[in-house]
Write a structure and sequence with these properties.
This protein is of the alpha/beta class. It has two domains: 301 residues, Phosphoenolpyruvate-binding domains (TIM Barrel), CATH 3.20.20.60; 171 residues, no CATH class. The chain is 48% helix and 9% strand. The chain has 21 helices and ten strands. The chain has an eight-stranded parallel barrel with strand order 1-2-3-4-7-8-9-10, surrounded by six helices. α4 links the parallel β3 and β4. α5 packs parallel to α8, α8 runs parallel beside α10 and α20 runs antiparallel to α21. It is globular. The chain starts with 11 loop residues before the first strand and ends with a helix.
């Protein structure tokens, strides 16, 4: 295990989420893949000032030799800035409880950790470059324990296993321990960061974390906890996702007060308001909305769709800021709002699914990924409806001039909306940011059920919001082309609108 202090845990984690429209200079083309991601890690460390890079093998191919490649190519930099002490690589692995077909990728990643330790020792002097991993779609403490146990009992535990032919006395004739044969396995232990994504997991995350930490209080100075924003927004609506995150943060704070382990939340935020509204010019607002969060994710749009000077400045602001207490929350009221908004949102999506899926196939790829179907696709209430991942989902709705942030809010009365504003303090600011890309003309071409459901929300929010006529025209052309089956210019139109927004989805 690492000996770093909680004060060393990053405030900004660079990730590989493909929500960007602009391509970075080190990429060979529009799609960032393979070797370019190694260059990206060096870039965010050396130029942007990020202290941590997520290395993602969940849903995509990941190079498990990343530590060796970074050290061999940029030896001078990483000799002065040690991975595992000054800078951090944190692997995200598949969850075999959910993604059984990717279970072996989890094992491959775990087996690469001692190798990374070995190759780093020329500069690291015993410091483990990798000592934490992220487990997506966590639903139980047992899922975390299995990974931790596999690493310590199977990976590290094999060091004393005797292999080779033994003599009658049990020695000689070639018998040798695995440790003596190929070397030791370090670090001795790893810790697992749960990533909570479903409503049940987010609202019950404190109980899961408490169970996982039982008996480990003396071993751990801190425990990181990852809260998703994108998948909950996709599944339940943006405002409902914000409330779930706030409930989780408050619950974790209360748990921290009961146990002797500091809990350090990570919040997975993207560039679109639907996915967190985390942009270089908005980091302070996000800090105000989620003051107890230790680490915010800087996804691809944050890094590549804004001027590098603005990105560097924003990262610097984060690095020199400190988390504080979570905002108090009326849990009972929040749960009531969540249920009403979730139900209304899912009904609205059922009328939009065909349009979303029709556009999604024309949204340009920005990273090489494996096929992945979001959690929403397995929702029983929607009878197996399939939808794209959150980024493409968001991009599709923005491309027809209907920012998805407005969906679900129609389930609340005006009085309840006022109550929501007391909890979701930046609601109106997020909606105004999203509303810049609303198209009334395109909206009038959407299903009647959507017009009836969403119009009251739009009218109450967008009175003073200025929209771009060029954007509105492109959105209108997109919905007309979709309805008419004319897709020749669709991808280029989607790109043009993304450029105007400064995020893909």
């Amino acid at each position: 295990m690492s000996s770093i202090k909680s004060s060393q845990v990053s405030r900004c984690m660079s990730t590989q989420h493909p929500d960007n429209i602009s391509s970075p200079f080190f990429a060979d083309g529009e799609v960032i893949q393979s070797d370019a991601e190694v260059k990206e890690a060096f870039y965010v460390f050396s130029q942007l000032g990020c202290k941590e890079q997520m290395w993602d093998s969940e849903g995509k191919e990941a190079d498990n030799q990343v530590v060796e490649k970074l050290l061999s190519r940029y030896t001078e930099f990483f000799s002065k800035n040690l991975i595992g002490r000054d800078l951090f690589l944190t692997y995200r692995v598949p969850n075999p409880a959910i993604q059984k077909e990717q279970g072996k990728i989890l094992l491959e990643t775990l087996h690469s950790i001692p190798r990374a330790f070995d190759v780093a020792q020329s500069v690291n002097n015993g410091i483990a470059p990798i000592f934490e991993i992220i487990l997506p779609m966590t639903t139980s403490a047992e899922e975390l324990e299995r990974i931790r146990d596999y690493y310590s009992k199977v990976m590290v535990g094999q060091r004393d296993t005797i292999i080779g032919k033994l003599g009658k006395s049990g020695v000689g004739s070639g018998g040798i321990s695995v440790k003596d044969w190929i070397g030791d396995f370090k670090p001795d232990e790893i810790n697992v960061i749960p990533l909570f994504e479903t409503s049940e997991a987010l609202l019950g995350c404190a109980d899961i974390v408490e169970e996982y930490l039982h008996g480990k209080e003396k071993k751990l100075e801190y425990q990181r906890v990852f809260l998703a924003r994108s998948d909950p927004a996709l599944n339940y609506g943006a405002a409902a996702a914000v409330l779930m995150a706030k409930c989780a943060l408050f619950d974790l704070q209360e748990l921290e007060g009961r146990i002797n382990v500091e809990l350090l939340p990570i919040l997975g935020v993207g560039g679109a308001p639907f996915r967190g509204n985390f942009r270089p010019d908005n980091v302070s607002n996000c800090g105000d909305e989620y003051p107890s969060v230790q680490t915010f994710t800087a996804q691809s749009s944050f890094k590549y769709d804004h001027h590098p000077r603005d990105v560097i400045n924003a990262v610097d602001i984060l690095n020199h800021s400190k988390r504080s207490e979570a905002l108090s929350i009326d849990r009972s009221a929040s749960l009531g709002y969540i249920e009403k908004m979730k139900s209304h949102y899912q009904k609205e999506i059922s009328h939009l699914a065909d349009i979303i899926n029709a556009i999604a196939s024309h949204i340009p790829a920005r990273r090489s990924r494996k096929l992945h179907i979001g959690l929403f696709g397995y929702s029983r209430s929607l009878k197996g409806m399939r939808l794209p991942r959150a980024i493409n989902f968001c991009a599709a709705l923005y491309s027809v001039g209907l920012p998805p942030e407005f969906l679900g809010l129609g389930g609340l009365t005006e009085k309840e909306l006022d109550g929501l504003r007391e909890i979701y303090v930046k609601l109106d600011e997020d909606l105004r940011d999203a509303g810049k890309f609303f198209s009334r003309k395109a909206f009038n071409e959407l299903p009647h059920e959507i017009q009836k459901s969403v119009a009251p929300v739009i009218d109450s929010i967008l009175e003073d919001c200025e929209t771009d006529p060029d954007y509105e025209a492109l959105a209108y052309r997109t919905i007309i082309n979709i309805k008419g089956g004319h897709t020749v210019t669709l991808t280029e139109d989607v790109k043009r609108m993304a450029w105007m927004r400064k995020f893909l989805g």
